[in-house]
Design goal:
This protein has 89 residues and is mainly α. The protein has 2 domains: 5-45; 50-89, no CATH class. The chain is 53% helix and 0% strand. The chain contains 3 helices and no strands. The radius of gyration is 29 Å and the shape is rod-shaped.
Length: 89
């Protein structure tokens, strides 16, 4: 990894010459450079969706005969807490 500005410029010139010897057009290096700068800026602006893992929401399930037992198994596996008939089994 190149850390100094002068070394970085020398590395870019070297890569540009190597690509041109292999037949790549001159615009390819410029395009890659612009794309990487754009991605860096986008990553800086991007905010995390949720800061905490404790985000919880409520779900209401209508009553269906015989469905409570199956829901109870899911509740145990995922450590969910419910109200009403599902916990009465």
């Amino acid at each position: 990894m190149v850390t100094e500005e002068q070394d970085r410029q020398a590395e870019e010139v070297h890569i540009q010459e190597a690509l041109s010897r292999r037949g790549y057009p001159e615009w390819t290096m410029k395009r890659v450079k612009l794309d990487t700068e754009f991605q860096k800026e986008r990553a800086k602006k991007k905010k995390p969706k949720h800061k905490s893992v404790d985000h919880k929401t409520s779900v209401v399930i209508p009553y269906v005969e015989g469905f409570g037992g199956r829901c109870q198994g899911v509740q145990k596996v995922w450590h969910l807490h419910g109200h009403g008939a599902l916990n009465d089994y």
